[in-house]
Design brief:
The complex is a heterodimer of chains A (about 160) and B (about 290). Helix content of chain A is about 80%, strand content about 0%. Chain A has about 160 residues and is mainly alpha-helical. Helix content of chain B is about 25%, strand content about 30%. The chains are: A mainly alpha (about 160), B alpha+beta (about 290).
C-alpha cells in the first residue's frame, strides 16, 4: 500500500472505525486515541498490508487496542448511563432506535462488538471472526444470543406498553 | 423441519439473510400456521442496530501522511532525452580516447616523426612495400651478429614536402625536411650501412662500431636523420643521412648520397635483413 492508498484509507474508514470504537468506549478522547493508534500501526505496516485488506486490518488493530484499553481501565458503568437505560425502559415514549441502543449496552461486550461489526459495517462472520479473534461458529452463536436477548427485551417492552 | 424448539434459529437466520429459498418457504408456511410468531419475527428485525451517522472523526487531518509520490519531480521529456544524449556522447568519447586504436602497433619498430614547420606539408603514411624490386636506391645494412629471432619487417613512407620560398632562393639552405626515423637495432654489433644505387653500384659505406651496446644488452635505437638540400637548378637534391645510435653521435658516421630527382619525387629505400624501409619524397614546388 502506497501513501496515496493509505490516505484514501483515512478518508474512507476513519469515521467508521471511530464510530465503532466510540460506541463501545463511550469516550471521545479515548476513542480518538485508539483510532490514531490504529492508523499509525497501519502506516508502519503499510508496506505489507494490501489496500483491499486495509479496512479489516484497521478494525482488527482498533478492536484489540480497544479491548486492551477496556481491560486496563476496568471501566464501570457510569451512573448517568445507568439512569439512561432505566429511563429508556420505563419511558413509553422513547423511540425504538434509542431503546435498542440502550438495550445494546446491557449485552456482554463481545456480543455488543459482534453486533456492531455486523450491523454497522456489514462484515460477514468470517471477517468478524478475524477481527475479534473468534471462529465463525462462535461469531454466529454470539450473534444469535445477542439478537435473541435484544428481541426478548423488545418484546417485553412492547408487552409492558 | 421447523418446530417450536428451533423456530428462533430460523427467525434469526431470516433476519441474517442466511436462509435458503427452501428454508424461507418453510418458515413462511410455519408462520402461516403459527401466526403468534410473527411478532417475534418483527422483534428480531428490530434488533438490527443502525450506526449514528452523525458521528465523525474530527482529527482526520492528523492521520494523513505526505504522499511522496506526488513530490517526485519527473524530468521533462526533452531533458531526459538531452541527458541520454550527453551520456552517450560521454561514453563514445571515453571509448574513443581510452580504447586502443586499431592503428596502434605495439610491435612497431620504426616511427616517422616529421618536424612541424609552416612550409612543410607532413602527410606521412606507413605502408608495407610489395617488393624490393621497386626500390631505385638501396641502402642496406649488414650485421656480423644478427638475431634470427627477429622477423623481417617492411616499412614504406610517402611524404610530400613544400620548399620554403625564402630558403628556396638560397641554395645553401635546406628544404624544411628533417625527419627522424627511429629504428631499433637488435644486437647492433659492427653494423654497416652499404649504400647502393639501383645498379648495385656502391655509393658510400658506413661502419658503425657499436660494441659498447652489446655489453649493456640494451635495445639500442638507431635514428636516421635525413635532410634534403636542393641543388641550384632545383631539379636535383641532396639527401643527407645521419645515423645516431642511442643518442650518441660519435658512434655514427654521416653518409651523403645524391639522389636524382625524377618527376619531383625522390625515392629512398632502406633495406636490411630485418628491416625494409621505403620512403618516397615528392616536392610540390621544386
Amino acid at each position: 500500500m502506497n501513501p496515496r492508498e493509505y490516505n484514501e484509507c483515512v478518508t474512507r474508514y476513519s469515521d467508521a472505525v471511530y464510530r465503532f470504537i466510540v460506541a463501545n468506549l463511550k469516550d471521545e478522547e479515548d476513542a480518538q486515541d485508539v483510532v490514531q493508534n490504529a492508523f499509525e500501526v497501519l502506516w508502519k505496516n503499510s508496506y505489507k498490508v494490501e489496500f483491499d485488506k486495509a479496512k479489516s486490518y484497521l478494525f482488527t488493530v482498533a478492536y484489540r487496542d480497544m479491548i486492551d484499553f477496556i481491560r486496563k481501565h476496568k471501566r464501570k458503568l457510569p451512573l448517568e448511563e445507568h439512569h439512561e437505560i432505566i429511563a429508556a425502559t420505563e419511558n413509553p415514549y422513547t423511540g425504538t432506535t434509542q431503546i435498542i441502543g440502550c438495550f445494546l449496552k446491557r449485552l456482554p461486550e463481545v456480543q455488543q462488538h459482534i453486533l456492531m461489526l455486523r450491523d454497522y459495517e456489514g462484515y460477514d462472520y468470517k471477517t468478524i471472526g478475524e477481527i475479534t479473534g473468534l471462529n465463525e461458529s462462535q461469531v454466529k452463536v454470539y450473534l444469535f444470543r445477542a439478537r435473541t436477548a435484544l428481541k426478548k427485551l423488545i418484546v417485553k417492552k412492547e408487552n409492558v406498553l | 423441519m421447523i418446530n417450536m424448539q428451533n423456530v428462533d434459529e430460523y427467525l434469526f437466520r431470516s433476519v441474517e439473510n442466511d436462509l435458503s429459498p427452501t428454508e424461507e418457504k418453510l418458515l413462511l408456511q410455519f408462520l402461516e400456521k403459527h401466526p403468534e410468531f410473527k411478532p417475534e419475527l418483527n422483534a428480531y428485525k428490530q434488533t438490527i442496530v443502525t450506526p449514528p451517522a452523525e458521528v465523525t472523526f474530527k482529527k482526520k487531518s492528523t492521520l494523513y501522511k505526505p504522499d511522496k509520490t506526488y513530490r517526485i519531480t519527473i524530468m521533462p521529456l526533452f531533458l531526459r532525452v538531452a541527458a541520454v544524449l550527453v551520456l552517450l556522447l560521454s561514453v563514445a568519447t571515453a571509448i574513443y580516447y581510452f580504447l586502443p586504436s586499431k592503428h596502434t602497433d605495439k610491435n612497431e619498430i620504426a616511427v616517422v616523426r616529421p618536424k612541424q614547420t609552416d612550409d612543410v606539408d607532413n602527410n606521412t603514411t606507413i605502408v608495407q612495400p610489395e617488393s624490393k624490386s621497386s626500390v631505385p636506391i638501396v641502402v642496406s645494412t649488414s650485421k656480423s651478429q644478427a638475431s634470427k629471432k627477429n622477423p623481417k619487417q617492411n616499412y614504406s613512407t610517402q611524404q610530400s614536402i613544400e620548399p620554403n620560398k625564402t630558403e628556396a632562393n638560397s641554395s645553401s639552405k635546406d628544404y624544411a625536411f628533417d625527419n627522424n626515423v627511429n629504428i631499433p637495432v637488435t644486437n647492433p654489433v659492427d653494423t654497416s650501412l652499404h649504400i647502393y644505387q639501383k645498379d648495385q653500384t656502391p655509393l658510400n659505406q658506413l661502419i658503425v662500431n657499436n660494441q659498447n651496446h652489446t655489453q649493456n644488452k640494451k635495445q639500442p635505437e638507431a635514428t636516421i636523420k635525413r635532410r634534403l638540400t636542393p641543388t641550384k637548378d632545383k631539379k636535383t637534391g641532396i639527401v643527407s643521412h645521419w645515423l645516431r645510435l642511442n643518442g650518441n653521435d660519435k658512434l655514427a658516421n654521416s653518409i651523403d648520397f645524391v639522389s636524382q630527382l625524377k618527376d619531383k619525387e625522390i625515392e629512398i629505400s632502406y633495406s636490411s635483413r630485418y628491416i625494409n624501409f621505403q620512403k618516397s619524397i615528392s616536392l610540390r614546388n621544386p
